[in-house]
Predict the structure of Membrane protein.
Amino acid sequence: MDFLTSPEFWLALGQIIIIDILLGGDNAVVIALACRKLPPAQRAKGIIWGTAGAIVLRVVLIAFAMTLLSLPFLKFVGALLLVWIGVKLLAPDEEGHGDVQGSDKLLAAIKTIIVADLVMSVDNVIAIAGAAQNAGEHSFLLVVLGLLISIPIIVWGSQLVIKLMERFPFIITFGGMLLGWIAGGMLVTDPAFVNPAVMDWMPKWGSVDEKGLAVISDTLYWASHIVGALLVLAVGKFIVSRRAGDGGEGGAAHG
């Protein structure tokens, strides 16, 4: 139980909870839409069982993703996807949930929640696998704890979370930069770049320890995280300002 006194463990757990809350708002909307036609007596059951099924499925997906991250260049690709997800968080597209069908049958509503969560959980899975990657043997425990803590917040406190994000936009900015931070760390610790036993013809800027975890210099560690966070912030702000400019020009053209 020594890991419970490790700052790295609690930092990673905090990152996972933040990621789940920031990227899980849509999931809460889907749950509400899927259960909206259920009789009041069954609505709570639909939410609970649908959410439970979604949690189990997501844990399996994350465990699978964490295993895949040991393959060369998958962390590299995952880092690029995380940067894209972080940018979308700062400069979101306008998307609706009108295609989510409500049902007056309990099992149908539960199925809708699980299937929709599966489709929408790609971003969560990549981000959480990245956040837990350096926790070694306790990484899976981190994932489960993070989900157990954050899912009830998402499901029962989604409206509060949404209002907080609207009132304090820096929360969204912080979340996007957090994804960029994790992406930077994922990219430089890809096995292709640090593991001498993997693609030995490639130049390496690090190594791996006896547990198979990446070992890189402190300078590269901090620089990669900071560059990743700043990249997401810069690209996100650029897209938002460009859209605002296009909107202004369009309005002037129609005036």
